[in-house]
Amino acid sequence: MDSVNYGLVGIGNTPNSAWPYHYAGTKDNPKINFTSVFDIDLNKGKKLAKLFKLKFYDSFDAMLESDIDAVLVLVPHHAHEEVVVEAAKAGKHILCEKPMATTLEGCDHMIEATKKAGVKFMIAENHRFLPAHQSISDFVKEGFIGNPFMVRTFEGVYETHNINNPKSWKANIEKAGGGALMDMGVHKFATLNWILNDTVDSAYCWLTKQVTDLPEKAEDNAFIFLKYHSGIIIECTLSFTVNSPPSNHLEIYGTKGSLIENHSWKNPIRLYSSKKLDAEKYDGWYLPKINHGPFPKYYLISMGIEDAHFTECVLTDKDPVFKPEDAREAVATALLAYLSAIEGKTTRMDELIDLYKKKGTKSIFEQLPKAIQINTILDK
Amino acid sequence: MDSVNYGLVGIGNTPNSAWPYHYAGTKDNPKINFTSVFDIDLNKGKKLAKLFKLKFYDSFDAMLESDIDAVLVLVPHHAHEEVVVEAAKAGKHILCEKPMATTLEGCDHMIEATKKAGVKFMIAENHRFLPAHQSISDFVKEGFIGNPFMVRTFEGVYETHNINNPKSWKANIEKAGGGALMDMGVHKFATLNWILNDTVDSAYCWLTKQVTDLPEKAEDNAFIFLKYHSGIIIECTLSFTVNSPPSNHLEIYGTKGSLIENHSWKNPIRLYSSKKLDAEKYDGWYLPKINHGPFPKYYLISMGIEDAHFTECVLTDKDPVFKPEDAREAVATALLAYLSAIEGKTTRMDELIDLYKKKGTKSIFEQLPKAIQINTILDK
Predict the structure, then answer these.
(1) Could you tell me which chain A residue has the CA closest to the CA of B154?
(2) Which end of chain A is less enclosed by CB atoms within 10 A, N or C?
(3) Per DSSP, which regions of chain B are E strands?
């Protein structure tokens, strides 16, 4: 087999879905063929199938019975579990958008089903494949900043229209599994766990609702402290209401230096280190050359690399470097932060695992509305 | 009177004290004469007096009996109260370094004594007088970013040598009134209260000790969430252990735009707004022209403006714009964050006021050591 034929599930949310970035990021890769599509919204699906020259199926089963090798899952978060399990049963390899699922129950069900079926399964965590993050991971591992002890990280986007739209599943508690924290937090947690080679011990979280009064919607903004097992402290702010171009920053402070990343810089990394590096220097900071471009370019770059990696794993029968267990840990971290907001205290991962065993993590979403601080400030 | 004669109290900590910045920032101002000095360390005091061409006094009383008009108080934090009260009794005007005092009791004693004596009294909060902050305050007040709803702010410096030195009063709980939070937090809180025209309702805080195991020392790093009365949420990280050039950032997100400040940029502000502004634009962001320069230049600029303002108030019998009550509020915010760390929960300003009435805020420092997370990561 020289290339992989993919069927798309859930293209209908385009242009808000991840599809256009997958499309544009892989169009020059001869090993990736997007051939087919199914969407529950038949009209939207047909229209987009025509636009992107895909074969349209009016049922998921029918598409799964076709000759596709793999599926790319683009449905709303709450539907990932069902779609992935069904595709696994049909023996298809699966690349599924983040977050893996909205519950740990869902994650474990998906892991079990894909293992049993022996199919390749990866969550499309593009931040894990971003060249800037790969460089940061390398610099940390090679000791350029000594031992990391503190991280500050931020993502801010403008989703006000979706949050105020009852028909949009964005920030819908049931369908999205939460708001800014679940949606953007998993990017941060998957990336940081990998770069820091560690996982979260405990979390504290504030959630706020500043632009909507729709009861079915979760937080617009989330403010999180994480403590890793090694003692590293992370500050993470996630916002759906930032009224300026998309912002994505990461600062890692170590005993022997600092790493500053800003995705809207053309050169996204600045490194302060006593170790010598073959890179341009400015004001004492190294500016390594990295394949990058402000949004949306870095999404095309990272998704192109991510999709190529998964495709290569299918073609050569290797396990993807971003494992389902890693994606599950990112979901667990988001759920832990929600639990902390509900309990109003610093909460340990042990407590989340206990809750999972006793009544399931889905119970978190029932309690979520009362954990969100309502402090409407935005203009109506 | 055309100019003000100042006596310095506590020059001995130079070059670590604020004195060199006051000196360099005011040297071209003919209205400011630093004429005299007293320091408890007579040898250091004499040496510095000679270097800066000042008259040396071997007792504070003797200097207060001289013809100086005002004092500039540079002693360690815990001694501000006694020195200010004594200077007030002698009828001298007082410019005193931050934080005002280490307790609310101390602040109130100082306010009472200076009011009773009828002398001018200002805390030398140079961030309040920084041109970049004045511009930010103007932009916010003029509606350039709509209603602010979220702030992220950071100060990171390298004080590892002082924190590990038992002889240094830096981060000594009793002498400094805490660590990074008390030392740098008051800058942030005084500045934000003014820019946002609001005060803190509640706080949550994590404190960590990463570079020292000296029991008399407080936190190296502090992680704080603040909720203002209006509902604005602030994230504030303060670090004594950042191993790169001094970092000082502020991000204010509003309903109609964003303001990003970085003190190490030559042009310290980027403004995103739909309102028109007569300034250079880059990538959609306005870059207003501001009198600024990376550290240490912005310290000279801000202290020059601050000292000129206080001097003008003395000469024209006007009240300084930065009131002792504002400086007290900044100390109260730091103490509230410490109280939150001790109680392990979000704590309201009401609770701090209660504690103050019942047993005094000095009691906070007795409980502080057990509230600090010990998570040593730094290389020994």
Answers:
(1) A152
(2) C
(3) 4-9, 32-38, 55-57, 70-73, 93-97, 121-124, 148-156, 200-209, 221-228, 233-239, 247-254, 257-262, 269-273, 280-282, 285-287, 347-348, 373-374
